[in-house]
Write a structure and sequence with these properties.
By secondary structure, the protein is mainly beta. It has a single domain, classed as Maltoporin, Chain A, CATH 2.40.170.20. The strands form 4 sheets. It has a 22-stranded antiparallel barrel. Strands 1-6-7-4-5 form a 5-stranded mixed sheet. A two-stranded antiparallel sheet has the order 2-3. The radius of gyration is 25 Å and the shape is globular. The termini are far apart. 42% of the residues are buried.
Amino acid sequence: MKKSLYFILCFAFLNVLYAMDEEIVVTSSLGGSTLAEIDSPVFVIKGDDINYSGSINLGDSIDYLLGVNSSGFGPGVGQPIIRGMGGTRVRILSNGKLVRDVSGLGSDHLNDVDMNDLQQIEVVRGPSSLLYSNGTMGGIINIVDQTIANKDFEGSDFNIGLERQTANMGTAGSFSYKGNVDGINLTYALKEVNFESHDVPNGAIIHEGSPEAKTSLENSDFATFSQKFGLSVVDDSGYFGFSLGKIENTYGIAFHGEEEEEHGGEHGEEEEEERIQADTESENLTIEGAATNLRGLDKLSYFFQANDNSFTEGHVEEPGHEEKPGEEEHEPTTFTNESFEFGMKMDIGNQASGNRQNVTINMSQEDVAIIGEEAFMKPVDSQMLSFGYFICRELDVVDLDFGVRLDQVNRDGAIGSTLHDISESDLSTALTMGWDLANNVGLTLGISSVARAPSEIELFMNGTHLAAARVEIGNVNLESERSNNIDFSVNYENDGYFVNASVYSNAVDNYIYLLDSGTRNAKNLPITNYRQADADFNGYEVEVGRTFITDNGEVQISYGREEVVGTFGSGGNVPRITPIKNVYCFALENENVIYDIKIIDVQKEDDIGFGESVTDGYTMVDFDIRRSIAIGSDEELVLSVFGRNLMDEKARNHTSYVKNEVPLAGRNFGIKLNFNF
């Protein structure tokens, strides 16, 4: 009944708006503009704020945003959470295309994205983000660069970067180039990072219920080498280009659950001499282009993408280790994802007059496999086909974004010796309306009904997941989740003062979660099962602040607060919900210098789910100082100094499966130099 009501409301609003005979001007992103122009909860982080700051993982780079958090597993892994939802409910995109890695197969797996030489990061909160990818019940994060340029570069730009951090004694170096050579746009970027194990406050690590007197988190080192190359040709009829990207990561797994052995004492001694390490490698080929002024179409955009991603996790003997008689040997486990995707968007209607509409088609093939000692899931082949229709109109009365998409998902897998061919057809729709009222007040109302098909691991998982220290059993009878969401936002800006507030109610039918069965296997690990139940996520985000001009430059101060409450319809709390977060910001910017101070106050989380424990709150104090120094007419030196967790707080993510054993890093200072010429 709720699903039908949402569809009726959306189509009713659409018909009413079509009946209005008004002049329209297009500004919405649904027709091909940037995400930043859409009337919905959107954040845009400037590329310079990422490129000139300290190197961190994706989740940590955005977790100061309201409604956005991170589930950590050491410095290399930070899986994003939006409005209390994580995993495949949040889609990670690179230049508008889905990143297909193996992050969904383990909480210790990183999102394999290249964070070097970015143009911006776009964050869309809420299910209305279905306009950009399927199954986006929480939202999307789009990482944007200019590897394939759709406009000609003017001149040539080089950048060389060097970085040093204290908490991990880490170093990083980067290089990038953009230029136009004989009408061909060329880009190249590489980055290398080498971080040692990071420092933590004394007593922050809790293992087997007791704090450990350690100031360094063992096996929390991280190293990465990434490079990407792009080429494109642009003319009056459109553009065509391709890119090649490769990322290699090596990092320690700071905690890895172990099955109890009969020789418990001996095993414990052996584990002190062992290291558990992850080695990842991803390769990406992207071909994309656009043709304009076609018969019957304003523009035809298309892309083809091929990805090959592998993640190998295994025990590595430390130097000097001597093998003991009867010592158990551990084989590595390799997770792979080979995928192909083709997408096409056709802009139809009279684009010049503002009646912007488009139709999209996406087809993909994804083969996921796990090989080795911890092969807790048999290979799964997935085929996905999506059709979408979107319309954007700007009327005198209201701005309208409307979208509907049909997703067909087929997954072939097995549990034990039984083969399963599972097919889901899901219809999703979203309507966003925005009003610009008098006195600088803007209102936005979003209504959506979005479906997400069960993931591979939720359907076919069947074994011991040591990274989470438990046995997980999938369920081939799971149905698609459906998010029925209403989101209302108010924005006010006048005389330097600003207020941004959002409140939302998200009723999720058939929410998929892990339920502890209360039993343990022969190795004393808890047995958990994937189950479904209706759940409600209700929350808000509010930010107030002021911007004013002083003799020293432009100053902005703000305070923000977010809260989300997740409960099951039958009673009880949704597990690993994000705690209340307060964010205090102070920024001063003049012609050459930027000062930025953030205080992130995370409150104690005691509204816990079954089998969870209370997580204490913490306060993070961070700062960034960036100064630009002109050298000559076209050269510039950018000096960045930054500090993180200045109070050396004991801090842990409530959303993390290993919050006790893998706390957040302690006090950290860093310096970064970028030379632009």
